[in-house]
Amino acid sequence: MKRTIVRWSNPDSTLPEITYEELDIMKMEIAPAFRGYGRKGMIIENPLSAKRAKEIEEISKKLKAQGKDRFEIQNTLMPFKLPLNYKAKNERFGLVMSRKLKFEILKYNPSDPNSRPHIEIYELEETPGMTLFVALNMIERNLTLI
Predict the structure, then answer these.
(1) pLDDT tens-digit profile of 13-63?
(2) Which of 10, 36, 65, 117 fits a disulfide with 108 by CB distance 3.0 to 4.6 angstroms?
(3) Architecture of the structural domain at 100-140
(4) DSSP, residue by residue, 52-109
(5) What CATH number is given for 2-81 in this structure?
(6) What is the model's pTM?
């Protein structure tokens, strides 16, 4: 299995330089199941995937029994040579408590002669994957005012 590396070593070039680097499946954190190429049904199974998947399962089970957390397990399975400030623990998306978001929105209807510019305050719970666009759409769809 190879990794494709594409780079522009010459900034004036119109085409990138393409090289390939061998990958050692037995050092991957997640074993590749298959690679699909082109049209449906063109699948090439990697002969080492089942072996690596079993090895990963055994290592993970052993480390969990020793009380290791997912960060220690991941580092054992696939250690990265990174500066310490890049190896800080992070939380998995959706596992952290959500935040309460507060929006103060300036509202005004220029077509209504009785409308005056005013602030309306809305609160909603942050949800996984929420963007500002999603939050504003939730507010627009009749979320209750504070």
Answers:
(1) 888 899 998 888 777 766 666 555 555 666 667 778 888 888 888 999 999
(2) 117
(3) Roll (3.10)
(4) HHHHHHHHHHHHHHTT--HHHHHHHHS-----GGGS---PPTT-SPPPEEEEEEEE--
(5) 3.10.20.820
(6) 0.43
